[in-house]
């Protein structure tokens, strides 16, 4: 982790002070492209760089020079060993067109590091850490520390409760029913115990900003499904709505292709989005079509609910848009499940 306030880097249980380079020292920190490289549109790749001169410093932190960044190419900040013949420079092309880095071009500049000081990493018990830290078998102490540091740095990305759900504004789900008149269905009878459970779940969704009251002409019945862990899944029966919805043909990835892409991989990370569908908004004019009734009022979704026929297509399109440019060598996605290779 780069701490600009303390002017240091912390990684692998070590504290690395950053050197305030003088004008003379900064001249020997350029990195040149070893070979001509073409970076595909919206992609990242590793370019072999050659340090122009190392001087008395062995370690440095790479950064991007202004002439490269102006072309829409960014360079990841990385600790490198200047004594090596070539150093890896990770670059990202943000443009929608391929970028060419010529041989000998300055692809990075380096900020010299004075020294590397080992210091045991202390972890605060108050920090929110995912349960993955409970089982780190197979990793040595240095690797465990690196994993903990990484997850602590990005701990705000992990959901801590059922109510801790993100919201994406990159797309809105559309329910295209053409000129078909609204469909109104009556609520199904529920046993008293299930009726109380339905009311509890409705209140929970209202409190979490998932649903709101509706006054439109549409209505679908609900279904309560018991999950493996004994809890209840709240579902809406949208079969009638789906029959009149114009279908979205956006394809889902083939599972066999995904498995083939993992061939030979030894290490990979899996990510599962928290209530992924609920992170996608509904087009305002279509919210009333998601309305449901429990017998106690009429409610509609503010976000994309489960059970809509085009929900998988909307979500897969969104995920592939967000991760576009990352090839199967780096990242695979199937709806709300992501594998980082």
TrEMBL record:
InterPro entries tied to this protein: DNA/RNA_pol_sf, Rev_trsase/Diguanyl_cyclase, RNA-dir_DNA_polymerase, RT_dom
Keywords assigned by UniProt, alphabetized: Endonuclease, Hydrolase, Nuclease, Nucleotidyltransferase, Protease, RNA-directed DNA polymerase, Transferase
BP terms from Gene Ontology: proteolysis
Lineage top rank: taxon: Eukaryota
Pfam families per the UniProt record, alphabetical: RVT_1
One GO MF term attached to the UniProt entry: peptidase activity
Domain Reverse transcriptase per the UniProt entry, residue ranges: 206-341
PANTHER family: RIBONUCLEASE H (PTHR24559:SF435), TRANSPOSON TY3-I GAG-POL POLYPROTEIN (PTHR24559)
Descriptive protein name: Retrovirus-related Pol polyprotein from transposon 297
Origin species: Araneus ventricosus
Name of encoding gene: pol_2459
